Amino acid sequence: MASPFLRHGILGVGLFLVAAFLLTRSPSPESTADRTYPRQILIIRHAEKPPDEAMSVDLSAEGKTRAAELPRLFEKTEKRPAPFATPDFIFAAKNSGKSHRPMQTVAPLAKKLDLKIDASFTNDDPAKLVDELFRNAKYAGKTVLISWRHTLTPLLAEKLGATDFPREWKDGVYDRIWQITYDEKGKATFLDRPQQLMPNDSAK
Prior knowledge:
This protein has about 200 residues and is an alpha/beta fold. The chain is built from five helices and six strands, in the order αβαβαβαβαββ. The protein starts with a helix and ends in a 10-residue tail after the last strand.
């Protein structure tokens, strides 16, 4: 009969081998097997802000006008015969001590569409928002609008799988929409499109 020490040794080796097998079978944190993808993600910068010396967390008068005009992006008009896809979900960067502007920008649109704004994700950690969009099946095949702050918008686009996007969102630019469209396998197509909402907005 084997000694207790030998039996314990054999048992320990067996448990080690089982654990090693299970680890090799478990998906890694970076696995994409359980991912789903929205049909389209639209990223906007918050609307215009007051001069820095104003020390304001709010939109400027011009910014409030842009926010009020935002629903026109999704309405068919003579000027916009092919409107943007109407959002099913709206996200905004969480309020900070310096800015409530991302949420203020989409508030009129959310009210018009009767949608709740999810402002639970901070601007400086877009990875958590991306994980929510790719791991929660309720966004699969849907259109998502994100109102963000310009400094980290390129990082957000990168984590969303976009390619060929501008590596910088210039400080004075408020009139763009970064459109990311996904195919059934999650491959992203990127377009940088104009809003054309305000008199001085870019035409293309």
